[in-house]
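agent: user wants the full assembly modeled, not chains individually. Plan: 1) parse entity lines 2) check alphabet per entity 3) run joint structure prediction 4) return tokens. Steps 1-2 passed, three entities, 938 residues total. Proceeding.
--- entities ---
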Amino acid sequence: MKRLLKGGHLVDPASGIDGRFDLLIDGDRIAQVGRDLPASLAEGGDVLELGPGLVICPGFIDMHVHLREPGQEHKETVATGVLSAVTGGFTAVACMPNTKPVNDNAGVTQLILQKAREANLARVYPIGAVSRGQRGEELADIAELREAGCVAVTDDGLPIATAILARRALEYTSMFGMPVIEHCEDQSLKGDGVAHEGPVAASLGLRGIPGVAEAITAGRDILLAEMTGGHVHIAHMSAWTTLEAVRQGKSRGVHVTAEVCPHHFTLTDDLLAAPIPYDTNAKMNPPLREERDRQAMIDGIVDGSVDVIATDHAPHHYDEKNVEFDRAPFGIVGLETAVPICLDRLVRAGLIRLPRLVELMSVNPARILKVPGGTLAPGSVADVTVLAPDLAVTIDRDALRSKSKNTPYHGWTFTGGVAATIVGGRVVFSNPASGWPAGRD
Amino acid sequence: MDAVAAAAALSQKNLLGIADLSPEEIVLILDTAEAMKEVGRRAIKKVPTLRGRTVVNLFFEPSTRTRTSFEIAEKRLSADTLNVAIGTSSVVKGETLVDTAMNIEAMSPSMIVLRHGSSGACHLLARICKAAIINAGDGMHEHPTQALLDAFTIRERKGRIGGLKVAIFGDLLHSRVLRSNLLLLTKLGAEVWVCGPATLIPPGLARLGVRVTTRVDEAVEGADVVMMLRIQLERMEGGYFPSLREYFTTFGMTEARLKRARPDVIIMHPGPINRGVEIASEVADGPFSVILDQVSNGVAVRMAVLYLLAGGAEDETVA
Amino acid sequence: MPVVMDADRIARALTRIAHEILEHNHGIAGVALVGVRSRGVPLARRIAATLGSVSGEEVPTGALDITLYRDDLMRAAVGPQPLVRKTEIPFSIDNRTIVLVDDVLYTGRTTRAALDALIDFGRPKAIQLVVLVDRGHRELPIKADYVGKNVPTSRKESVRVRLQEIDGVDEVTVEAVE
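--- prediction returned ---
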């Protein structure tokens, strides 16, 4: 079936397009991009006249998501996770291996992919474990994982335990051109910390995690990537010292990429004290840091040192979060809040323009994970995110499609939202309030 | 009773920390405690004030001193008291703090005195309970009644708090007593110095308006009040300093070191004391020590807090 | 705002009461005064001074704060608490005749609280009651032994006693309450 999207502003940095263009989809592929394409091209299909201001982008890919299945289906399942993803404008997600059991073998990978096929919403790219059981001892069967469909490896939730294991992982994955995604955190410096080490944690009596705990591991892995020629991707970067290490690595030509989460460039540890003291929805790992760190993440996004915005979507059940701060698990949901935050706080704030946002959320994740998408060039997969940059969006935790509601943004209003999400040519999510026309989907 | 009595109210329903109190509220508590202290000197040390009110002492950490002090304060005010001591073992069995609190709340207590190992546990309880919550020590956060009784003792001995040099020694990183004292003493205008090993000084402490040093002599110099904090054995095991012996030789309060203080210095310690670790016996038992005054003043201060919170000033517009 | 007692009337009433105390107790041996806070305290001191100058002996005088004994405490679910002040009775009340001094006798509830409070201090031989003004409307079976002035009032009125030591002026007024 053909579908013609008319009247939108089309942004496709990979093709150098940023202007008023129409998009023709044929089946699950992009067929044509052009100015004022005639409706006759979509004969027998849909002609969708987009409301004013809508922006057509290559599908957004969230390369850091916890879908919790198998093993923790009370928090999230593949089905609820991908529903949350498409609602948030993501056409694809890469899911972390710290499930129960750990995704360290083809069986778990295949189970996740089977659940994703059944849900049939966003594409799901499993990420395998670096080490068997994520125990940090010996390498998992990485070739088998890749064969089964994994697009990267990580021990996320924990750093790769030792320098020698990180070295082996970088060497081994370099055979397949897979990235090693690193959760940077020196375990001895983290200790039993629960919040960023600084004045706020000191006044609240919370055990601290210093920023350099992240930078030390990042520095180690960047040096190892340089030595081995492997590709290290720094997950959820939060500290200014880590950004410095990434910049230095990049300037020396090391194959290092880095991602930042929306909460780390919008929030600081002040949120631990007010408005809700000890709010467990302000507890994540890495922790919300200080203003200097937050500003550094913005700088990295603006100057290109940051490659990707990912959410670290980490659903937890209400009961698990409704406990003492130090007993609560780390993490917040992010799939349905990322687009409003980025449109409002980065684009509308004038820090970056839309093509840069598309690079951060679509082009670069596709390139790093070597997965389809990231462009609207004819012949590409028809994964499209349509943005409504002028739409006022108030975050309501009860309205989230994710199974979990652990967000610190409840009640926040942002300007910018999702008009529609198209995966493989199918409109899997649309918001009529955004100016998206009523179609047949 | 037609006389229009002067009203005394705290702006908060709970006492979660000194952070929430204004200087005027702190003075109100101390003044009320003076009246309460007189009750403790009577032949019959009991007034009918809280008759029919139930106060639950919910202690998730062992504490003889604080729990006993609260219990005596409650009994002197004629409250019905209920002690619930929960070892960590029953938490392991699966009941959450929230569930425990809801069960207690269902019995309609007026107040819950909470001691808990997690910072912020009182804030969590305050969000779900109608009863007033009194923080009897939460993790590394605050121990407000300890700071209030310390202030009461200082004021009793020195006649004032503003302008005094107060030097506090010990574990500045993990101590909830320190945090509450810093907040209170700076609010009332004292010049506060803190001193301890660099490994036990949290970042940003100086931003709380205190002078930070690792040199004992500098902190003691001209001090009106010397306050020692308890050094816990597990800090040594955690690698914060090499040995108790070295701690004492470097930071322990001895008569020799105390010579730099003002001649009328008072020595305070929240207890329990580690003799020969943070404080020499001669100092703890010496003429400058007010350590036992602190203990007896604790009852009066806690009576004052219980009394002032029993009115339950939930709404500031009610005057 | 009619003034029912001026400074002169108050002084004469207190002098008369002092003499009545002497007469009633056959001297001041074993007598002590306890003023109820706030305005009972200066009244007790003034009576003690008169007793002292007449008898040549000093009469022990104390101050009693009855806040912690009030029967209207804790009745309201919310609201501020009355300010608690110090009770200072620097002598034993055992086997003494305690003359309790208050400014106004109205419902009798303050006196009830004061009696309870006093008894927690010991076992006096007897307790007698002085009030500057008795305005009627008793709610408890309580009667003053010495009264400065009986002032008939309605419940809608309020009796205010102002004293030099606290208010800078000696006078008793009856005021309408809205």
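agent: reporting back. Residues 92 and 299 of chain B are 33 Å apart (CA to CA). Confidence is low (pLDDT under 50) at residues 1-5, 312-319 of chain B.
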